[in-house]
Amino acid sequence: MREEKARLRAVLRARVAGMGAQAREEAGRAIRERIAAWGRWRAARTVGGFLPLRDEPDVRPLLDEALREGKRVYVPRIAGGGIGWGRYGPGVRLVRHELGFLQPEEEGERGVRPEVVLVPGLGFDRAGRRLGRGGGWYDRLLVGEARAVGVCFACQVVEAVPEEEHDVRVAYVVTEQGFFRCYT
């Protein structure tokens, strides 16, 4: 299973790299527009997002707009071997985690349950299976989360993502080409 996932990760990384920076930016803009127009996103008062790595769709403008609309915005924060939600917004100092992504410096808030959660991934399928980067961090963060939205480029949607017992599925996937409900 690990070898199968590793092969698929390499294929999907190559697909994204082949898009080029301008195409990724244009696709990212379309993805943000789709999420912003989604009724559940518009209605949510507390949302979870992510601070993207350079090969992931950039949702930061969407998170900033959510703050201007008065939403509470959270992003993942890893510390002490665990993962939770850290507050995102003005005055929050971001630091680079050893895995390469930015996260809030200060400890996250306990008991945070975003109404909608945006989740990056290297790949997704129509059943909501997600292929991450291999650390299992999002699987631990999303346990029991019913409104998780996989965010990726259309070239990252595949027929089937290999699934292990601990893998957590998403309820929706959004790309620059569309937004679909997963068959979970």
What do these coordinates show?
It comes from Winmispira thermophila (strain ATCC 700085 / DSM 6578 / Z-1203). InterPro entries: FTHF_cligase, FTHF_cligase-like_sf, NagB/RpiA_transferase-like. Its cofactor is Mg(2+). This is 5-formyltetrahydrofolate cyclo-ligase. GO terms for molecular function: 5-formyltetrahydrofolate cyclo-ligase activity; ATP binding; metal ion binding. With 184 residues, this protein is an alpha/beta fold. It has one domain: NagB/RpiA/CoA transferase-like (Rossmann fold, 3-Layer(aba) Sandwich). The protein is 30% helix and 24% strand. The chain has five helices and eleven strands; from the N terminus they run H-H-H-E-H-E-E-E-E-E-E-E-H-E-E-E. It has helices at residues 2-19, 21-37, 39-43, 60-68, 137-142; strands at 46-48, 72-79, 82-88, 94-96, 102-104, 116-120, 123-124, 130-131, 148-151, 172-175, 178-181. The strands form three sheets. It has a seven-stranded mixed β-sheet. The chain has a two-stranded antiparallel sheet with strand order 4-5. A hairpin with a 2-residue loop joins strand 10 (172-175) and strand 11 (178-181). The longest helix is centred in the first third of the chain and has 18 residues, at 2-19. It is globular and about 40 Å long. The two termini are 21 Å apart.
